[in-house]
Amino acid sequence: MAIEYRDVYKAFDVPVLTGVDLTVASGETLSIVGPSGTGKSVLLKTTIGLIRPDRGDVLVEGQSVVDASPAELQTIRRKVGYVFQNAALFDSMNVFENVSLGLTDEEIRSLGRDEVLRRVSEALEDVNLDAPLVLGKLPAELSGGMRKRVGVARAIVGRPEILLYDEPVTGLDPVNSAAVDRLISAIAERMHVTSIVVTHDIEGAMTISNRIALLEGGKLRFVGTPEEFRRSEEPLVRAFVDREAAFAAAAAKSEAGHEGMA
Amino acid sequence: MPRLLEPFAGALRGIGRVGDSVFRHAGGMAMLTSRTVTETLRGEVALRDFVDQAFAMGVQSLPLVMVTAILSGIVTSQQGGYQFTGSIPLYVLGSVVTSSVVLELGPVLTAVVVIGRVGARITAELGTMQVSEQIDALYSLGRDPVPVLAAPRILAGMLAMPALVAIANGVGVLAGMISAQATVGLGPESFLYGSRLFWHSYDLLYSLAKAFAFGFVIPLISVHMGLLTRGGAEGVGRSTTASVVFMIIAVLVSDALFPPLFLN
Fold this sequence. Notes:
heterodimer, A: Rossmann fold, 2 domains, six-stranded mixed β-sheet, 11 helices, 10 strands, B: 9 helices, about 0% strand
């Protein structure tokens, strides 16, 4: 299912998006990177009408999100799974109840409790969580990484055709970040979904994406494959790649030092 | 602009800002009311959500409402007894306590308790859901927050408040009667004789109508303010404070409108 952003413009007190044009092909995984406050999450939220652009349009499989009626918008949203930055799980509900919210009321009624439980457990296993162990737990009883994975399970349980991830690895340690990155790739491959990932983690974006888009100052400054991104001479891209490379080199050096001491 | 007129321009700007804010809130609450009615009529409000909210607002508020009613009955009785002793027949105290509790103290003090206990909690709860993107998550899951979050609370308020006020009225009058015997020696028969002397059955209807209005206004404002919350934990604190202020003003203003509208 393809997504198209056409001249998307959005201002709050100041302009945030100033004319974004971007097409994400069906089945593609595209990462959006860029400095904080440049409108990456805003762009993601326009995809399902959580934020309405001041100008321009967003098309999901050719259907306008901006002009959609409430019923049409609901239909579009049911085809999309959205993973929020802090998972946005409902505090008063346990993991089973949270994840089953990803199914429609009609599905819950027609499937019956046993089948719903099976679907929820399957989604939890898909994100490498031990379903029997976590089903009855409240979000407050889970670690940050587990909460994010439950958020992913909720997004995929309804078998969406599009998955949107808003900073899925922010706040996670490198081991959990890598695990979530592997999860995103595995889900994209297994479910053949179109994925958009908003992230600050360039290395992760290089691994999971078919293409990377750099958003800065409300505009897209670069769109290309990870290889093109790595080789780009565009100063903004270089700033991101070099910083990431410097960080990776420092981490490798530190690790080598620890091994030497051992 | 001449310097002389600058203070007036500033005042006008201030009035304009307040007017704009009042109209925006009023518009938002009118929309919320209309959506609540529509979703309720369409059968989109889950009975379980409504029952949960009615339990939280009604049953769980009952102890505090009863304490407040008992104290207000005792105080009214004691102060009336102090004023009437030696000047007016003491059985009039029964009428004073009954009318004060049923017409005014029962509904208004119960509303104040519900604002503090329930209204503030609703704003803080929905505000936290708003700033932690849980409301966005509901939308993203193809679910509408009005039937899921707003309507059950508003409907529960309209059911729970009259029930609470009816209980507060009974408990308040009973406490006043016991207090009258203990402090000024007015027996229950004389107290009830005084109560019946100036009693109109319409008074109870008036009291419950007030409760119904407060039971609608309190959750409506608290839900509206909760859903408008922006800006993290600080924003939740700000909107909860503003919500409590708005709820108190709304209850007192509607309380002031009741006598000219319904007691003539």
